[in-house]
Design goal:
single chain, alpha/beta, Helix Hairpins, Chitinase A, domain 3, 2 domains, two-stranded parallel sheet, RNA polymerase binding, Tscrpt_elong_fac_GreA/B, DNA-binding, Transcription elongation factor GreA
Length: 167
């Protein structure tokens, strides 16, 4: 089973691949060529660093291409009254007596520090498809878990400023 991606995710990935192939690859190859021209490669730090940068770029291209090849396209559409992909959700954590606001996204955009929760995370899996007012158990380990209450759902859409996770 592959990564769950929206059509917007696929487009962003294709754009990054194209940029890396057409722009970054040329720049990295030129850096390797310049460093190689400096002479003795055994003690040439610039050459080693340039090769590492080039290899990192090629690795990222392969990673993204493999992700696209194995991806499963999911819809970001949801009913007006239920939690779906790209929706902003206010969640009350009963155990902590705290309320947090998150936006549900695919795992390639997930970043909990910025309030972007993946649909494949325990919290994301638990609240997806539920309605405001629902009390939901978030399973963390087998039957262990905690309860949250969905306070509010804002029908937000894909934010084109979201960045893709690195790895």
């Amino acid at each position: 089973m592959g990564e769950q991606l929206t059509r917007s995710d696929v487009q962003k990935i294709k754009e990054e691949i194209e940029y890396r192939k057409l722009v970054v690859r040329k720049k990295e190859l030129e850096a390797v060529k310049e460093a190689r021209a400096q002479g003795d490669l055994s003690e040439n730090f610039e050459y080693k660093a340039a090769k590492q940068d080039k290899n990192r770029n090629e690795s990222r291209i392969r990673y993204l291409e493999k992700m696209l090849k194995n991806a499963r396209i999911v819809s970001d559409a949801s009913r007006d009254d239920e939690v779906g992909i790209n929706n902003t959700v206010e969640v009350y954590f009963e155990d902590d007596d705290e309320t947090e606001v998150y936006r549900l996204v695919t795992s390639v955009r997930g970043n909990s520090l910025q309030g972007l929760i993946s649909i494949e995370s325990p919290l994301g899996k638990a609240i997806r498809g539920h309605k405001a007012g629902d009390r939901v158990k978030v399973k963390t380990n087998g039957e262990n878990g905690y309860y949250v209450v969905i306070k509010r759902i804002d029908k937000t859409t894909d934010d084109s400023n979201d960045t893709l996770r690195k790895y």
